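Subject line: Sequence and fold of a protein, written as structure tokens
Body of memo: The sequence and its backbone structure tokens, given next.
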Amino acid sequence: MNDGSTDLRLNVIERAPEGDVPAGPPVVLIHGLFGRARNLGFIQRQLSARWRTLAIDLRSHGDSPHGMLDYHALAGDIVETLAVHDALPAMIMGHSMGGKAAMMTALLHPAQVERLVVADIPPARTGHGNSDVAQAMLDLEFPRPLDRKSAEAALAAVIEDGGTRALMVQNIRLGDDPGWTIGLREIVASMSNIESWPYIPDGYAYTGPTLFLRGANSPYLRAEHLPEIRRLFPRFELETIPDAGHWLHVEQPERFVALLKAFLERSF
């Protein structure tokens, strides 16, 4: 399943307990589309009291290099970066697009993934209009100079939800030379890859412990996806978080972290 993409060295935010670095696999946290490592700060702070943790910026996101996105390439980036940080094998958690990247990493490099947590995304096509929104953001013209209030006002024309606008403002360069700090052009060009999921032939199942977490109010992970999840991740478990949608780790952070910790600590 290797498409020959060139791996990129990704930006990493690392936290660990005070004193000696604990033994055992580190925990790796992977954000979703338009996110960045520091968006997972609450989760990382909770886990870093017990484990060495690494939150990463995927390519074209945060402070990582820009490049076209597909899940083979993202998996290569992740393994290359973790190898440089001497953080393999690892326990990996990914949300949304990051969940797809985490799944592909486990399927292509199973010996490097001790446990897998996938937050509210199935191994399936999950397009929900992101392409139109991303193109509209790319077409925005920002006033000069640009402050945060003006950036939010500009985004309001294409993004209705206030929380999503606040997330996206983090990806904008303010000041006299405004613009996008992320690789938005590459993201737009890659959107068909991001929203899709490649065919996985028989023989690429990940047999390690796997936890799927879904929001009860989210449309993403549905009963129809369970047969494919079972084929690719035969040791999977599924937990549903009440009163949460696709942003389940933001809407119910304590419950999300509690389930994550319990899974990471459990003996198999």
